[in-house]
Amino acid sequence: MPASSEKQARLFRLVRALQKGNINAGEVSPQVRTMARTIKPSSVKHFTKLKEILNQLKEGEYSLRDFDIIKGKSFNQVLKENEGISFNKKELLVFQSKQNGFSGFGKTNFIPNSPQNTQLEAEIFSNDSTKKYVFKKLIDQKNDKLVVYACFIQRTYPEKPDKEIFSMLSTGIDKNKDYEQTKVLADFIDRINSYGL
Predict the structure, then answer these.
(1) Helix, strand or coil, per DSSP, at residue 153
(2) I need a surface site. Which of 10, 59, 75, 166 has the fewest CB within 10 A?
(3) Residues 96 and 155 reside in one and the same domain
(4) More confident residue, 74 or 191
Protein backbone atom coordinates (compact mmCIF):
# COMPACT_ATOMS: atom_id res chain seq x y z
CA MET A 1 0.00 0.00 0.00
CA PRO A 2 1.47 3.39 -0.97
CA ALA A 3 1.96 6.21 1.53
CA SER A 4 -0.98 8.51 2.18
CA SER A 5 1.11 11.69 2.17
CA GLU A 6 4.48 12.94 0.97
CA LYS A 7 5.54 13.39 4.60
CA GLN A 8 4.80 9.72 5.36
CA ALA A 9 6.62 8.63 2.20
CA ARG A 10 9.71 10.64 3.20
CA LEU A 11 9.73 9.05 6.63
CA PHE A 12 9.60 5.55 5.14
CA ARG A 13 12.30 6.44 2.60
CA LEU A 14 14.53 7.37 5.49
CA VAL A 15 13.69 4.08 7.27
CA ARG A 16 14.43 2.18 4.06
CA ALA A 17 17.78 3.97 3.61
CA LEU A 18 18.75 2.95 7.15
CA GLN A 19 17.72 -0.66 6.53
CA LYS A 20 19.81 -0.76 3.34
CA GLY A 21 22.82 0.75 5.11
CA ASN A 22 22.86 3.92 3.00
CA ILE A 23 22.94 6.06 6.14
CA ASN A 24 24.29 5.53 9.65
CA ALA A 25 21.97 4.95 12.62
CA GLY A 26 23.51 7.91 14.46
CA GLU A 27 22.34 10.26 11.73
CA VAL A 28 18.62 9.65 12.27
CA SER A 29 16.13 10.03 15.08
CA PRO A 30 15.35 7.22 17.58
CA GLN A 31 11.89 6.88 15.99
CA VAL A 32 13.43 6.05 12.60
CA ARG A 33 15.84 3.54 14.18
CA THR A 34 12.96 1.78 15.97
CA MET A 35 10.91 1.63 12.78
CA ALA A 36 13.88 0.21 10.84
CA ARG A 37 14.29 -2.58 13.42
CA THR A 38 10.61 -3.48 13.81
CA ILE A 39 9.09 -3.18 10.32
CA LYS A 40 9.85 -5.70 7.58
CA PRO A 41 11.83 -4.19 4.66
CA SER A 42 9.19 -5.38 2.18
CA SER A 43 6.50 -3.47 4.10
CA VAL A 44 8.65 -0.35 4.32
CA LYS A 45 9.26 -0.43 0.57
CA HIS A 46 5.52 -0.17 -0.13
CA PHE A 47 5.25 3.04 1.89
CA THR A 48 8.15 4.79 0.17
CA LYS A 49 6.08 5.82 -2.83
CA LEU A 50 2.98 7.86 -3.42
CA LYS A 51 0.64 7.05 -6.30
CA GLU A 52 0.75 10.60 -7.65
CA ILE A 53 4.34 11.48 -6.69
CA LEU A 54 7.05 9.28 -8.13
CA ASN A 55 10.04 11.58 -7.83
CA GLN A 56 12.74 10.13 -5.64
CA LEU A 57 14.59 11.98 -2.91
CA LYS A 58 18.29 12.55 -3.39
CA GLU A 59 20.36 10.03 -1.47
CA GLY A 60 21.18 11.25 1.99
CA GLU A 61 18.76 14.20 1.83
CA TYR A 62 17.54 13.49 5.34
CA SER A 63 20.55 13.08 7.57
CA LEU A 64 21.92 14.94 10.55
CA ARG A 65 24.92 15.92 8.42
CA ASP A 66 22.71 18.73 7.10
CA PHE A 67 22.71 20.37 10.55
CA ASP A 68 25.46 22.61 11.82
CA ILE A 69 26.26 22.31 15.52
CA ILE A 70 26.96 25.73 17.00
CA LYS A 71 29.34 25.97 19.93
CA GLY A 72 30.70 28.91 21.90
CA LYS A 73 27.68 31.18 21.31
CA SER A 74 24.39 31.75 23.07
CA PHE A 75 21.14 31.08 21.26
CA ASN A 76 20.23 34.78 21.35
CA GLN A 77 23.63 35.67 19.90
CA VAL A 78 23.10 33.24 17.01
CA LEU A 79 19.65 34.69 16.32
CA LYS A 80 20.97 38.28 16.35
CA GLU A 81 23.77 37.37 13.93
CA ASN A 82 21.23 36.02 11.44
CA GLU A 83 19.05 39.01 10.59
CA GLY A 84 15.79 37.84 9.04
CA ILE A 85 13.49 39.43 6.49
CA SER A 86 9.70 39.36 6.73
CA PHE A 87 7.71 36.25 5.88
CA ASN A 88 4.87 37.05 3.47
CA LYS A 89 1.23 36.02 4.01
CA LYS A 90 1.55 32.86 1.91
CA GLU A 91 4.55 31.72 3.95
CA LEU A 92 2.70 32.40 7.20
CA LEU A 93 -0.13 30.21 5.90
CA VAL A 94 2.39 27.41 5.27
CA PHE A 95 3.45 27.59 8.92
CA GLN A 96 -0.20 27.54 9.97
CA SER A 97 -0.86 24.42 7.87
CA LYS A 98 2.18 22.64 9.40
CA GLN A 99 1.20 23.21 13.05
CA ASN A 100 -0.66 19.91 13.41
CA GLY A 101 1.67 17.07 14.24
CA PHE A 102 4.89 19.06 14.22
CA SER A 103 7.50 17.25 16.30
CA GLY A 104 5.15 14.26 16.71
CA PHE A 105 2.65 16.09 18.88
CA GLY A 106 -0.84 17.50 18.47
CA LYS A 107 -1.02 21.15 17.60
CA THR A 108 2.21 23.12 17.87
CA ASN A 109 1.86 26.88 17.61
CA PHE A 110 4.37 28.77 15.49
CA ILE A 111 4.34 32.20 17.11
CA PRO A 112 5.66 35.31 15.33
CA ASN A 113 8.23 36.87 17.66
CA SER A 114 8.55 40.23 15.96
CA PRO A 115 6.10 42.82 14.63
CA GLN A 116 7.65 42.48 11.17
CA ASN A 117 7.20 38.66 11.11
CA THR A 118 10.94 38.12 10.68
CA GLN A 119 10.98 34.99 12.83
CA LEU A 120 8.54 32.34 13.98
CA GLU A 121 9.09 30.29 17.12
CA ALA A 122 7.78 27.07 18.60
CA GLU A 123 8.72 25.56 21.96
CA ILE A 124 8.14 21.87 22.63
CA PHE A 125 8.60 19.88 25.83
CA SER A 126 9.23 16.14 25.42
CA ASN A 127 11.41 13.29 26.65
CA ASP A 128 12.71 15.39 29.53
CA SER A 129 13.97 18.02 27.10
CA THR A 130 12.90 21.43 25.93
CA LYS A 131 13.28 22.22 22.26
CA LYS A 132 12.97 25.71 20.89
CA TYR A 133 12.64 26.08 17.11
CA VAL A 134 13.16 29.47 15.46
CA PHE A 135 12.51 29.81 11.73
CA LYS A 136 13.85 32.78 9.75
CA LYS A 137 13.96 33.85 6.13
CA LEU A 138 17.42 35.15 5.19
CA ILE A 139 19.10 36.70 2.17
CA ASP A 140 21.49 34.11 0.73
CA GLN A 141 25.06 35.13 1.62
CA LYS A 142 26.42 33.92 -1.73
CA ASN A 143 23.74 35.43 -3.99
CA ASP A 144 21.62 38.39 -2.85
CA LYS A 145 18.93 37.56 -5.45
CA LEU A 146 18.11 34.40 -3.50
CA VAL A 147 16.54 33.76 -0.12
CA VAL A 148 17.02 30.76 2.16
CA TYR A 149 15.01 29.49 5.10
CA ALA A 150 16.85 28.85 8.33
CA CYS A 151 15.89 26.85 11.39
CA PHE A 152 17.75 27.34 14.64
CA ILE A 153 17.12 24.76 17.35
CA GLN A 154 18.05 24.97 21.00
CA ARG A 155 17.77 21.72 22.94
CA THR A 156 17.95 21.74 26.74
CA TYR A 157 18.04 18.82 29.17
CA PRO A 158 17.37 19.29 32.90
CA GLU A 159 20.40 17.25 33.95
CA LYS A 160 22.80 19.06 31.57
CA PRO A 161 23.81 22.67 32.17
CA ASP A 162 24.84 23.23 28.55
CA LYS A 163 22.32 23.88 25.81
CA GLU A 164 22.76 22.27 22.41
CA ILE A 165 22.30 24.59 19.43
CA PHE A 166 21.78 23.42 15.85
CA SER A 167 21.09 25.26 12.61
CA MET A 168 20.01 24.21 9.16
CA LEU A 169 19.47 26.11 5.90
CA SER A 170 17.22 25.33 2.96
CA THR A 171 18.33 25.58 -0.63
CA GLY A 172 18.35 29.04 -2.20
CA ILE A 173 15.18 30.27 -3.91
CA ASP A 174 14.59 33.21 -6.24
CA LYS A 175 13.17 36.17 -4.26
CA ASN A 176 10.49 36.79 -6.88
CA LYS A 177 9.04 33.27 -7.11
CA ASP A 178 6.37 33.09 -4.38
CA TYR A 179 5.08 29.67 -5.45
CA GLU A 180 8.57 28.16 -5.35
CA GLN A 181 9.23 29.77 -1.96
CA THR A 182 6.11 28.30 -0.33
CA LYS A 183 6.86 24.87 -1.79
CA VAL A 184 10.45 24.90 -0.50
CA LEU A 185 9.31 26.24 2.89
CA ALA A 186 6.74 23.43 3.30
CA ASP A 187 9.38 20.83 2.42
CA PHE A 188 11.92 22.48 4.75
CA ILE A 189 9.51 22.36 7.71
CA ASP A 190 8.80 18.68 6.98
CA ARG A 191 12.55 17.98 6.84
CA ILE A 192 13.12 19.61 10.24
CA ASN A 193 10.16 17.68 11.63
CA SER A 194 11.44 14.34 10.30
CA TYR A 195 14.66 14.58 12.32
CA GLY A 196 12.92 14.63 15.68
CA LEU A 197 15.59 16.88 17.20
Answers:
(1) strand
(2) 59
(3) yes
(4) 74
